[in-house]
Predict the 3D structure of the following.
Amino acid sequence: MILIDGSNFYFRLKDLKLPKYKVTEFDFNAFAKWLARGRQIKSRNYYIGVIRAKQNDEKAQKLRMNQQRLFSHLKSKDNKFVVVGGYLMKNDGVYHEKGVDVRMAVDLVVGACEDKYDTAILLSSDTDLLPAIQYAQKRGKKVEYIGFANKPSFGLIKTCNLRRLLIAEEIEEFIYRKSKKS
């Protein structure tokens, strides 16, 4: 089971200062297979706050359109991800994602209870997930933390059964290039 915190993933990738690319040019399928290292993938979930744009808000409409392109890319037959949506709430002019961590935690716990996975591969740096991780481990499940070397989560490193910190060179190979498509 692969669980990707979309916002966390996006901003960590941005921090790596990779060559300019669009997130819709990222090979999520190959990335998922690489993370699984030969293990069967039963589910691939991408968690993200969904943009709900007002009619007269051009900037928000553009962001929503780009996010819908990302969703189509993730759900495509090439990538095979399920998009699990939370929502965005505006507070003092700043948007905050809501409900995403809860959805991830619920999927970790329910998946452990219903024996939907042996190992959860978690790409997030959010320590709010620690209780769900610990519960899954008590149910005999393994949780593998995938973080980024430039901004690791020490709480997740300490708690998870296995931890891997990604570097830019590992991520670059999953960016579509015109030569790859030819």
Observations:
- The domain at 2-181 is CATH 3.40.50.1010 (Rossmann fold).
